[in-house]
Specification:
The protein has a domain of 188 residues: Alpha/Beta hydrolase fold, catalytic domain (Rossmann fold), CATH 3.40.50. An eight-stranded mixed beta sheet has the order 1-2-4-3-5-6-7-8, sandwiched between helices. The protein is of the alpha/beta class and 269 residues long. The protein is globular and about 50 Å long.
């Protein structure tokens, strides 16, 4: 698909998804399909588009739900990974789900882990892709300089194996975020809380089936992170995607969906 057409399709998709965004009480979310709840948890710079192909594929069989996590709505002093997990707990209770499958990317994986530690009886399966929780090299070793779009472009490109995925639209979105002082303060607060909150000691207690899908070329949560998750989670399977960075479901959506579907089928989920 030509890049200009693909970008146009993405924004059309975003428009459609935004129109489907539901608001009930204090919650904003997307819900597609019927069946077992499969909750998708986005990362620190996540967006609806990150899970475009996942929603389209899995909503044919599951109730796919994307809650919009309150990354920028909480008071600065309360903005951390634990409180975002508490928000997830309130959302799941609000929806009345008896059990859920959690799929988290990057920070979303970390939120899933915190929730799972606190409510293991609620989690039927745990799916992590490029999850933080053990180690994360966010933005390399520095935060983007607000005044420099090209600097941001290079840092966004690090997310992917193929820098073509660092589109002008994605760079502009990140540029707008890091030029908003209130958002920057919350991003830094969340990032610092995630670094402090290492989950290594908690993982052996998480006995539900766990699927790990990782890019072999991820430089933010590198392969050794995936291996450690695999070693510490009692019932986990690890799958690699070649020529893939920190967002497998964006960079290789067909492979990601196939690996996850085969794992779900194998586990009877």
């Amino acid at each position: 698909m030509p890049a200009d057409f693909a970008n146009g399709y993405l924004w059309l998709y975003l428009l459609v998804m935004t129109e489907k965004l539901r608001e009930e009480g204090k919650f904003r979310y997307i819900e597609e399909g019927e069946g077992e709840p499969l909750i998708l948890l986005h990362g620190l710079f996540g967006a609806l588009s990150n899970f475009q192909e996942v929603v389209e594929h899995f909503s044919k069989r599951y109730r796919v739900v994307i809650p919009m996590l309150p990354l920028y709505e909480l008071p600065v002093l309360e903005t951390n990974a634990r409180n975002i997990a508490k928000y997830l707990d309130r959302f799941i209770k609000f929806k009345g789900y008896e059990q859920v499958m959690l799929l988290g990317n990057s920070l979303g994986g970390h939120v899933a882990l915190i929730y799972t530690r606190q409510h293991p009886e609620m989690v039927k399966a745990l799916i992590l892709t490029a999850s933080s929780g053990l180690y994360e090299n966010a933005f390399g070793s520095s935060f983007p300089r607000r005044e420099d779009r090209e600097f941001i472009r290079k840092k966004v490109a690090v997310t992917f194996y193929d820098p073509k995925h660092a589109t002008d639209e994605l760079v502009e979105e990140c540029f707008q975020v890091v030029n908003d002082r209130n958002r920057v303060l919350r991003i830094l607060a969340i990032a610092k809380s995630a670094i402090r909150h290492n989950m290594a000691k908690d993982l052996p207690k998480m006995e539900m089936p766990a699927c790990l899908i990782w890019g072999k070329n991820d430089t933010i949560t590198p392969p050794e992170v995936a291996n450690e998750f695999h070693e510490k989670l009692p019932d986990s399977e690890l799958f690699w995607i070649d020529e893939c960075g920190h967002a497998p479901m964006m960079e290789h959506p067909e492979t990601f969906n196939r690996l996850l579907q085969e794992w779900l089928d194998k586990r009877g989920l």
